[in-house]
Structures are given as structure tokens and as C-alpha cells.
Design a protein that fits this description.
This protein is of the alpha/beta class. It is elongated. 32% of the residues are buried. Strand 10 and strand 11 form a beta hairpin. Helix 7 packs antiparallel against helix 8. It is built from eight helices and 13 strands. The chain has a six-stranded parallel beta sheet with strand order 1-4-3-2-5-6, with helices on both faces. A five-stranded antiparallel beta sheet has the order 7-13-10-11-12, with no helix packed on it. The chain has a two-stranded antiparallel ribbon with strand order 8-9.
Length: 249
């Protein structure tokens, strides 16, 4: 998977199929969109392109309740997950205040059409973007038609109940790691670094469950106690590796 920082650094990608979103968690609902994206790219004879944002928009747009945002994935984790899904290209757009204020039609014209020249645009059933979230399927359909861009709308993914990043965050806060894994489509994990008998997580916005959990790192399983941002292994053997996975068995 090729990764590009900002739209200006993206080379020509003929007949691309493009989707855009925060994709926090890259969960099963997101994967339904990505599967449709890849199928659409095969149809157009081009490559798949995912456009995401860093920092996460919720870190720039103040939360109504004033609470600090906690995310399922850091940017590096998101890259690993999207690559594992078979995405060809990832565009990481800096989410600045200027981008936040950009109307949906200008974002579409300047960023999506002007920079990516897609053959098709794939969006989720309820996806909206642009200032005030005014860019929904109907509005985008009108803009896309004017440029000969195919619009593909992915229906809601709802196999055994609604799946969303918000719901999964709440499951993890409650320590329900098996249910979280079912909604994510993989066991929840974090990138950390062993330091002085503990494991440090560099990103302060990474959501961590609280309590005692069994995790695996480099194929070695052990228990950890998590209190706040402190992760303390309950093993005499220092943990190794950088990717640690919560075991949901």
C-alpha cells in the first residue's frame, strides 16, 4: 500500500475508485465499504484509494460535552489495518481548521476531483463531509454527475446489530473485549514500547480498557494491569515487540 501525506503529493492514479472517512477502528462496517471499494476499482480498471484525516476530526472539532476524544486507532495502527484489507493507496489529509471550514462542494471540486480525478466515489449509507456535514449522497451525486464520476452507496452493515466506532469504544471502556473483537473483525491491539518493566503507549488519545487483561506480544501471552495510561505486565519476563493484542478468547 502506498501512503501519501496530503493531496498535493498524490501522483496520477487512472480510473481510481475513492472513498473518504475517518475509519477509526477499521471495523466490520468499514470493511464492507472497503470491499465495495476494491470491487469498484476492479470494475473501473483502476486502483483503490482511501482518503482519511490526521488528526482525527474529533480532535479538531470540539466535542459538545467537552470530553477528551479517545480513539480506537493511532494513525500507524490504521495504516496497518488498511494495508491488511488490501487497499492500494492511502491519502492522509491534514485536518486543519481551514479544511474543517471548507464547504462540501469546494472539498469535492478541489480535493476529490481536482487532485484525485476518480472514476468512482464509494461512500457509506450515512456518510457526510464538508463544513456542517452538508455533503451527503444526494448532494454529492449531483456534483459527481457533472464530472462523469460514478457514485456507489454502500448499505448499512448490520449483521447482528448496529456497528459503529462509538459503540465499539463503549464496549472497550466496559472491558467487553470479545464483543469488541466481533464488531472490529479482529482482536483489539495497540502499538507500545516496553520501558523499564512497563509498556508505554506513546499516543495519549489511544483508548485503553481499564483492569487486568491477557495480551500477546511476539507470540508470548501474559497478563497486564492497566490503570489510566499505565500498563504493567504481570510476568517476570520483560515483554518484547511493539504490537500487543488483547486476547478475546
Amino acid at each position: 500500500m502506498r501512503v501519501f501525506l496530503g493531496f498535493d503529493n498524490v501522483p496520477a492514479i487512472p480510473n481510481a475508485a475513492v472513498t473518504t472517512g475517518s475509519f477509526d477502528g477499521v471495523h466490520t462496517g468499514h470493511r464492507a465499504i472497503i470491499d465495495t471499494l476494491k470491487a469498484t476499482a476492479r470494475k473501473t480498471g483502476g486502483q483503490s484509494v482511501v482518503v482519511t484525516f490526521d488528526p482525527h476530526p474529533r480532535k479538531v472539532v470540539p466535542s459538545p460535552d467537552g470530553k477528551r476524544v479517545e480513539l480506537l486507532n493511532t494513525l500507524e495502527e490504521k495504516k496497518l489495518l488498511l494495508e491488511s484489507c488490501g487497499v492500494d493507496n492511502l491519502v492522509v489529509a491534514p485536518f486543519t481548521d481551514a479544511l474543517r471550514q471548507m464547504p462540501h462542494d469546494r472539498f469535492f471540486e478541489e480535493c476529490m476531483i481536482g487532485r484525485l480525478h476518480p472514476a468512482a466515489l464509494v461512500i457509506g449509507y450515512d456518510h457526510r463531509f464538508g463544513h456542517g456535514r452538508q455533503g451527503g449522497f444526494e448532494a454529492l451525486g449531483t456534483l459527481a454527475a457533472a464530472h462523469g464520476v460514478e457514485m456507489v452507496r454502500v448499505p448499512e452493515y448490520n449483521p447482528e446489530g448496529k456497528v459503529s466506532s462509538t459503540i465499539i469504544r463503549e464496549l472497550i471502556r466496559r472491558g467487553e473485549m470479545k464483543k469488541a473483537a466481533e464488531a472490529l473483525g479482529y482482536d483489539y491491539f495497540f502499538i507500545g514500547r516496553p520501558q523499564g518493566g512497563a509498556i508505554e503507549v506513546p499516543d495519549p488519545d489511544k483508548l485503553l480498557p481499564q483492569g487486568r487483561y491477557e495480551i500477546a506480544g511476539e507470540g508470548v501471552c501474559f497478563f497486564v494491569d492497566i490503570a489510566g495510561r499505565s500498563i504493567t505486565p504481570q510476568t517476570p519476563v520483560p515483554p518484547i515487540g511493539t504490537v500487543f493484542t488483547f486476547l478475546s478468547r
